[in-house]
User: What shape does this take?
Amino acid sequence: MNKLSTHQKGLFAAFLAGLLWSTGGLFIKLISLNPFQLSFFRSLFSAATFLILFKSQAVKRNSATFINALFYAAILILFVIATKMTTAANAIFLQYTAPIYVLILEPILLKTKFEKINIITIILAFTGMVLFFLGELSPGHFAGNIIALISGMCFAGFLLGMRKNDHAYQFATIFWGNIIIALVSLFSVFSIQMLTMSDLTMVAYLGIVQIGLAYAVFTYSLKRVHAIEASLISMIEPVLNPVWVFIWYGEKPSTLALVGGAVILIGLTIKSVIYENFIKVKAG
Assistant: This one.
């Protein structure tokens, strides 16, 4: 039996990371704690996991580390709130609009070249976003969609900040981000009437596996495959997230939301795969 090549191991690691990330929506739905209570315990477990896995790399910091950590904290808290208020599909797909804001802001903030293909990607993404808001018009879903969009904007700020900061601080950014979440959410634990073993087990899974181990696996992948390959494969997260929620929680996203999500993913795929590969061939 042939052993897997280094590249194949990297591809599998990217797939595993996306698979683990995709389970977040289901457990957020199943856990009875409110968004801040859930965020508090998940972040404690996640911070502890990062400290164990990455040791001194988890605590080293510079000024940009804390700015990026604030973006990270906002992403996670807002995503939990959005998932509780709207469908898991809406929350994850709207969060995945982050690359669109990066395409718009990157040339302005980082002085990169604005490619014409970005216009097509942006139009497709905004078309998909409109479909989400047409799909569910109830007040709760509408507010949840807005919060998911803001989470995506914070995600864009996080991506830009991480790119600008030294790569050596990536683990520390996640670690300190989880510490910030725990501190911000600390007030919520005093109102817990009873913490069930079921809820505690699920938030432990989210912190240790869905965030901590998944991030470690994805980092392993990035060292063995191209970033574009890892990013594309990990996009199974928004695809599988609503699937697990539908199977185990019974939540069915609207048809327009599914179409909107497909449009967003198509836009990102055109940008990240078809166009990038065309440029490589042309350059070669």
